[in-house]
Amino acid sequence: MKKIAIIGSGNIGLSLAKGLVKANYTTTKNITLTRRNTANLYKFAQERYKVTANNAEAAAEADVIILAVLPQQLNLVLDEIQPAINPAKHLVISVISGVSCAAVREKLDSDVQIIRAMPNTAIAIGQSMTCIASDNASPQNMEDVTRMFETVGSVVKINEDLMTSATALCACGIAFFLRGIRAASQGGVEIGFHADEALKMAVQTAKGAADLLLLHGTHPESEIDKVTSPKGCTIAGLNEMEHNGFSSSLIKGIKLSALKAGNLYTKES
Predict the structure, then answer these.
(1) Which of 16-20, 103-107, 227-231, 258-262 is least confident?
(2) pTM, full prediction
(3) Which residues are documented as binding site?
(4) Treating both helix axes as pointing N-terminal to C-terminal, what angle do 246-261 and 173-190 enclose, rounded to 10 degrees?
(5) Which residues are annotated as a binding site for NADPH?
(6) Is residue 262 very low, low, confident or very high in pLDDT (cuts 50, 70, 90)?
(7) Which fold has domain 173-261?
């Protein structure tokens, strides 16, 4: 099994590590987790993950390096690991918003293969929607990374120029859909349910709606048509929401998030 170094073991990095082990993709002893404060990784050290604050050492010993730090921390990390990079050995995976493969390669080595991956926080329960892209990775490495992230959800391969869009739709999108569920539960309270009852009903209804599309492979409108009857209560509610900009505001929010995601990283930061 390949040795994996996760540089910056926050929520995403740790969830991926756990998913890889749970799916038998690799074992804890083949994963190195780095963090400035290793005390936060005590539980993982007890489970025989290798834990260190030395990013360069972790990179040197790994075959696959996963960059999972904040955009503003990236340049410092790349400077730390650059002397350890061997293009013939290393595959680098970046899960950092707004950072191109070329920008990472410029700091490391012009020949190293870079794959970008954009998971979301549902990775913690194995339900991530992860998009991956590269401008120079081999088909075999792309396949390996696809299998890696399939241990924690679904994977779609896209062109790299769509990665900031994927950030907005899939990563930021978790928050958008959660806000919709919260609003639905608040509406439930308005019409008579206790808050805990309304939230439970809104959550399960949202889950059912998503599963209808996933399991049937249908378009949302076809499922909506099954619920809306002439002069009925569903179409009345839908039209009221649309008159108040429901779809338009969601579309505008996604577009603005995509714009912001593209500006999170600068080479000088």
Answers:
(1) 258-262
(2) 0.89
(3) 55, 68-71
(4) 150
(5) 55
(6) confident
(7) ProC C-terminal domain-like fold (1.10.3730)
Binding residues for NADP(+): 68-71
Q: What is the side-by-side order of every strand in the sheet holding 31-34?
A: 50-52, 31-34, 4-7, 64-67, 91-94, 113-118, 128-133, 153-157
Give 18-44 pLDDT, tens digit per residue.
999 998 999 999 999 999 999 999 999
Domain 4-164 class?
alpha beta
Helices (H), the chain: 11-22, 42-46, 55-61, 74-81, 101-108, 139-150, 163-166, 173-190, 195-216, 220-227, 233-243, 246-261
Q: How confident is the model at residue 265 (pLDDT cuts 50, 70, 90)?
A: low
Domain boundaries, the chain: 4-164, 173-261
Instruction: Examine domains 4-164 and 173-261 and report if their fold is the same.
Output: no
